Amino acid sequence: YPENGTIWQEKYHNSLQEWLKKDVRPNLKKWGFNTVGWTQEVVNRGMTNHRHSRNFTTEEYRWLDMPYCHMLHFADFHQWDAEVRHPDFFSQDFKDWCDYVARDEAARLADDPNLIGYFYLDCPTWVHTTVKNKWKGPIYDPELLTTESGKKELSRIAGQYYKVTHEAIRRYDKNHLILGDRYEASKLLSEEVIQAASPYVDVLSFQHFSTPAKIVQNLDLWHKKTGRPTLIADCSHATVDKSTEHESHTAKGYEEIYTQLRNAPSCIGYHLCGAYLENRVRKKGLLTEQEKPNEAFTQSLKKVNQEMENWVSAFKL
User: Fold this and answer.
1) Which residue would you say has higher pLDDT here, 174 or 235?
2) Is the distance from CB of 173 to CB of 106 less than 8 angstroms?
């Protein structure tokens, strides 16, 4: 922004490499984080265009030098997408696009030891919509799930999507985890979709903005149904203060959610929703626009993250 652009120019000399190496990585390590789960930030939340910044590049991940997850942009039926029509998963167009995305990104990342795995969509609208994308509807009408034939058809459609995307990745990267779609747990979830995904993903990933107890209940449910490990790919419900016009992270809740997640043996990780550097769309961040840390929250992060690190280290493989 005009109000803080001088920081970027004078402190980091207009260099992403300097920013990542001298600021982002040291701070995240100091606060006890061991993973960067998501590198795109929401920059526009309009009713006709809701967009995120681009992914980090291969070089930027190397400068950061921390474990990370990468999103492969196979399609645009996110619950926040207001612009793009649904793809035809059975078309050659879709197969060709998935192959391009995989060879352009996964092929370059395939040998990176810091890469954990690949995400697909953020909150896919398989059987639900939001105000922004009601005009195009869900991928599949949930009313059709009242019949066995309707359930079978959704299984067929979802199976094709996960098969094509899985094959595209494995042509270029045979080793890293496939973390799949980041399902919105607070919306209607179809068992047909998640069962169709199970043969083609290594982990079931969820966005879950609810109480810690409900989050654990949801993870247990889907783990029992599929046998797959689970991941909280986005969550901040318990750590955000919305009592004022300006949202901010609070120390309350962060320790509670980790305490509860210890009772969810299927859960392999927790990703905090929010920005590293606050912007005027996301609002909440670990640093303000002027790079002032949220001291109370970051101190809580440091304490809880260290406790979790010790808890995990106590297990014998």
Assistant:
1) 174
2) yes
Paired strand residues for 263 = none
Interval 270-297 mean pLDDT: 89
Residue 240 has pLDDT above 90, yes or no: no
Q: Give 235's strand partners.
A: 272
Which of 15-24, 173-182, 208-217 is predicted with the least confidence, judged by mean pLDDT? 208-217
Greatest CA separation for the chain: 63
Which residues have CB under 8 Å from 163's CB, separation 6+?
Answer: 200
DSSP, collapsed to helix, strand or coil, labels residue 81 as: coil
Task: Report CA dihedral (9, 11, 17, 22) to the nearest 10 degrees.
Answer: -170
SS (H, E, C) 111-158: CCCCEEEEEEEECECCCCCCCCCCCCCCCCCHHHHHCHHHHHHHHHHH
In whole angstroms, what is the distance from residue 240 CA to residue 245 CA?
12
DSSP-assigned states of every residue in 296-317: HHHHHHHHHHHHHHHHHHTS--
Q: Are 63 and 21 in contact (CB under 8 A)?
A: yes
Q: Which amino acid is at 112?
A: D
- Of 204, 84, 91, the C-alpha closest to 133 is 84
Query: What does the alpha-carbon distance between residue 157 and residue 94 come to, in Å, rounded to a whole number?
Result: 13
Instruction: Compute the residue count for the chain.
Output: 317
User: Exposure of 233 by Cβ count < 10 A (0-12 exposed, 13-18 middle, 19+ buried)?
Assistant: buried
**The token pair that represents 285 in the structure block:** 């961040």
End-to-end CA, the chain? 48
Residue 292 has, within 13 A of its CA and on its CB side, a CA count of 6
- Residue ranges in the chain assigned as alpha helix (H): 5-12, 16-19, 25-30, 58-64, 92-101, 107-109, 148-172, 191-197, 212-226, 254-261, 295-313
